């Protein structure tokens, strides 16, 4: 889901989030959802946090610049997101299989660029 920046004349990120969830995933508007986000300002804004608490979502703590991610890992996110975009998986094993295939087919140059 792409978030829109809060600007004059644009829909707010919170309104966009609400609409996207209601339209695409109405079952998420219940307790028991665990969310981890990147602490971007729209995600950590008071209004957004209050709205998420209203539905009893648990927010996992994840400090900005967390040391559990190597800088070279960040290089993976965009290409992986583009690869998985639009795919649906029946089982966790199907997802793991697809991820293994994707990683196996990356050339060495991909990782060299990411490390640099």
From TrEMBL:
A GO molecular-function descriptor: nucleic acid binding
InterPro entries: RNaseH_sf, Transposase-MT_Hybrid
Protein name: Histone-lysine N-methyltransferase SETMAR
Organism: Plakobranchus ocellatus
Lineage of the organism: Eukaryota, Metazoa, Spiralia, Lophotrochozoa, Mollusca
């Amino acid at each position: 889901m792409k978030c829109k920046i809060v600007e004059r004349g644009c829909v707010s990120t919170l309104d966009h989030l609400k609409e996207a969830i209601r339209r695409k995933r109405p079952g998420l508007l219940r307790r028991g959802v665990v969310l981890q986000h990147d602490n971007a300002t729209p995600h950590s804004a008071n209004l957004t946090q209050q709205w998420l608490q209203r539905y009893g979502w648990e927010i996992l703590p994840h400090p900005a610049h967390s040391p559990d991610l190597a800088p070279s890992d960040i290089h993976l996110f965009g290409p992986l997101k583009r690869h998985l975009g639009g795919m649906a998986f029946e089982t966790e094993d199907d997802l793991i299989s697809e991820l293994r295939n994707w990683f196996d087919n990356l050339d060495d140059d991909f990782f060299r660029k990411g490390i640099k």
